Amino acid sequence: MRFAVISRLPAWSRTLSLGLLGLLSSSTVASAAEPPRVTLVGSFQSELGCTTDGDAACTSTDLTYESEDDVYQKSFTLPVGTHTYRVAIDGGAGGTYGAGAALDGAEIALTLSEPGSVKFYFDAKSHWATSRPSSAPKAAIATVAGSFQSEVGCPGDWSPSCLRSMMQDPDGDGVYVYSATIPEGAYAFKVAMDEGWATSYPGSDVAFSVPAGGSGVTFQFNAETRVVTFKVLSAPAGDINLARAHWVSRDTLLWSPLEFPEAPQLKLHHDATGAMVLGSTGIEGGESLSLEVDPAGPSAELKAKFPHLATFKALKLPADALARVPELLQGQLALSLTNKDGKLVDATSVQMPGVLDALYTYNGPLGSTWSNGVPTLRLWAPTARSVRLHVFDSSDAATASHVADLAHDATTGVWSLTGEADWKNKFYLYEVEVYVRSEKKVVKNLVTDPYSLSLALNSTRSQLVDLDDPALAPAGWNGLKKPRLDAPEDIVLYELHVRDFSINDSTVPADKRGTFAAFAEKASNGMKHLARLAGSGMTHVHLLPVFDIATINESRADQLVPAGDLVSLPPDSQDQQAAVNAVRDADGFNWGYDPYHYTVPEGSYAVDPNGSARILEFRQMVKGLSETGLRVVMDVVYNHTNSSGQDARSVLDRIVPGYYHRLGRDSGNVETSTCCQNTASEHAMFEKLMVDSLVTWAKYYKVDGFRFDLMGHHMKANMLKVRGALDALTLEKDGVDGSKIYLYGEGWNFGEVADGARGVNATQLNMAGTGIGTFSDRLRDAVRGGGPFSGLREQGFASGLLSDPNTTDQGSTDAQRQKLMHYADQIRVGLAGNLRDFRHVNKAGATVKGSEVDYNGQPAGYTVDPQEVITYVSAHDNETLFDAIQLKAAPGASIEERVRMHNLALDLVLLAQGIPFIHAGDEMLRSKSLDRNSFNSGDWFNKLDFTYASNNWGVGLPPAGDNSGNWSIMGPLLANPALKPSKEHIVSAVDHFNEMLRIRKSTAAFRQRTAEDIQSKLRFHNEGPGQVPGLIVMELNDEKAEDGRTSVVVLFNASDEKQAFPLASYKDKTMQLHPVQQGSRDARLQEAGFEAAQGVFTVPARTTAVFVNTPAKGDTGCGCSGSSGGAFAALAMLLGGVLMSRRRRTQA
After folding, report:
1. Which of 169, 666, 709, 939 does the annotation list as catalytic?
2. Distance, CA of 979 to CA of 892 (rounded, Å)
3. Domains, the chain, ranges and CATH?
4. What is the C-alpha to C-alpha distance for residues 141 and 423, in angstroms, rounded to an integer?
5. Is 602 a known active-site residue?
6. What are the residue ranges in the chain where pLDDT is below 70?
7. Residue 511 is among the residues annotated as catalytic for this protein
8. Catalytic residue among 205, 746, 868, 883
9. Residue 813 three-state SS
């Protein structure tokens, strides 16, 4: 993912001296003759094989000249400490260069807080030297990567690893610069960090043009602010291809020009046809209005609404021009700035969302509404010159249309038309006449309705439907009763993809496989599996995107399938992924994070994808799941659309160009930090679209929850408005209880909205106190080990850290112990609902709050209520839990031990306070054959098997795109037959998972309702510096527990040894293994026990043992006390196994 912000170009770059230009790299000029040797001379040479430090003659610290990069470079492993160095040329004969690229300059300092690899760089042309530790918190190497690189000597374009376009900072002020002479043409670029695309700036590609004859171009990057700027030195001042000015209210524009001279002359230029151009002396064509600078700057209200513009100049329109504003907004706009002599200083185009909100925010209905069987259509298009409606009798492309004009309300920007009763179920398109800045002209767009409720096949036309039409409701729909839900803390989420669920299930009728309709097939293997989960305690099925998706062909007859017999290929073959990749964009699979229309069910998931049948089938799915005991959650993706601009699959931007998408502050280009075309929910009418859409899904489809993709790209205020709108829904008025609808999302903090840049965004920390959940990466990373962007084989609590290290460097034994204890602290916070104020003793022996436990520089604990955390160790993103265990476990670990690691990881989720989240199939050891990003990897790599015959491990090397760099690690694992689980392993995992669900459901201690309850009732033992590593002991006490379990003790043993742990407070008390575990088929649980005489709890290796003081009301268990490892318990387990087997036969 490539993200960040672009900012203005400062004045210095316009007057860049020839001396500085000569210092900086310019790959279009022949390189100076390379000296025969370049040597690091420093305080660390003796660590690297040299006799002494400071030895320019020692070849052990020579750098290597890379001709492709035209830079000297090499990596060395250095110890902890502060090091210094300079660079000697030709053993010192050619000079020695230090700080500031100065001959005989001061030594360059390098401080390492941990040992590791450091890469050194030296440019012999500029004499600049720098280094990059592998563990550096901030990147030190920046390259300008773009479509121009082949013109400056790189082997290809968009190559962040080509150091010919490396940016340099000779004066050490944190501003990195690269200059080059580039030939005429249109180009684009980004600044990439550390020779790759993991981090880059700004959020979207930056376009620039070089005029005829070529020109010098200077690029600048501020390492502190992450601001990117550039200047084409021979071009006119300014660029009206960019929109760096912002019209924010009727009378105010905000702009930060390149320079601001004395006696500035500012003008707003406008032209209805788009004929204006930027010439050498200024903007040519159109008319203009003079603007005045407001010395007070933006008002407090404007600063609050547009924090990213708070430092901009405020420019005021003359009073006599205010009445013309609506007219001006319909055409081309630009600003110019000249000095007192009339010389052009800067020029730019204008962004308009702020003024559109100020003038045209509308709260009424949009889309189609019905009254007495007659439809009225409304479209918000305030900058349109005309809107016409095309009505079609069918979805057939050859069908001619009936055309009617819509009436315009100048006060709201809404166009409307009341139709005829016989328009019901007909299809339609809007014809919108509007000026498009990117096209520099007025266009007529034929476009679907952004408020569509039904669509033709492949979304070619909208359809007029009435969601209250009885023909669109399954029998019993209006009286459907939802499964009981007493509190959010009772929720357990199961993340499932509609197509994955049934596409391979032979017990589902062929035409219904991969569709909504499969969820109504209650006798299928998949539905029996879900029914068992629901009976054990699963409450909600979270469906990956089910709205209209842009990237799946809805015509099943036209969907392609991989060629060949993939089943017979070797488990480590490249052929499976090659076959899948050959049809990846033409098959029927995609995760679906490509929104096209937000409020229409996806057609490829319907048996009949053309028209309104998809509505009926979606409702049948909701009904089928509800009757199985499961509520339904939709994964919603309002943070971006698939397309923008004039693309054929762009809807919003072809109706109100430049409004619905979030634009770069200093470019006007659509931001893409999400992956795609970012939307701007801080704009009033996108917020309205989002809220209206969610209310429709809740009210008309009875959806019980919403998971917000990249929720941190929305504002906190958006989410609170959504919460309020849903809370207003009642059973009496709307047929649904909106207060029971649960909201949660990804609260990641990055991109152009990071840290509140566009307003208080809906991030993990910001959402505390709202009751809206966020995914916690804290427990996830601690349990698995590492993180999504760290080493594949980095171990964690459940994957063998310290107790069973793998063959990669996990650090010294003591370093592993310290890391494992820190992971345990993070897990304890997670088990306590990730509460920011929960107190426990950390690994150093200090009593700390959850917010004081570190997670990569952030607080581990951040919630104020347990319902605000989503606890998970696996989701659709990244490797499945099973695959992660396979990568991280020690090579000698048996498949049986790996399954136990897997089970233990899920136990930590299911027994945590807050809301557990399970990736579908994790309970079945789901594998994607090590694919870390299966969004477009087809049915082959995403397969679910509810017969439990296979978990999909070893079905070939995963697709090359995101995985080929690790094939050398993956191949031997996939080829090893000892690592493939059997059906017995899978069944045992399913049984274990259901047991843990039943424990959570039957034991109220694991579902505390408030932070106060958790703080007063939950405590941990085995803490502090003297703890037994790999063992977490959790105690829950509630004298008023309604289920009678006033004491619960849980031991999570991740080590490879049995552990006995004494608790003096339990001496002579009566405790027993939880009745569910007494009936477990896991033979190792027979080793678990409690010795009352000493108060000692025993837990087997890689096992979770739950002890309770008395059976809850209605429990069926052995009822024994004292040691639970005796013959009576064994008999109970045997009997429990028989009962479990009978239950499986009746359900499977």
Report:
1. 709
2. 10
3. 11-232 (2.60.40.10), 239-358 (2.60.40.1130), 361-470 (2.60.40.10), 563-584+926-980 (no CATH), 774-925+981-1132 (3.20.20.80)
4. 61
5. no
6. 1-35, 134-139, 1111-1148
7. no
8. 746
9. helix
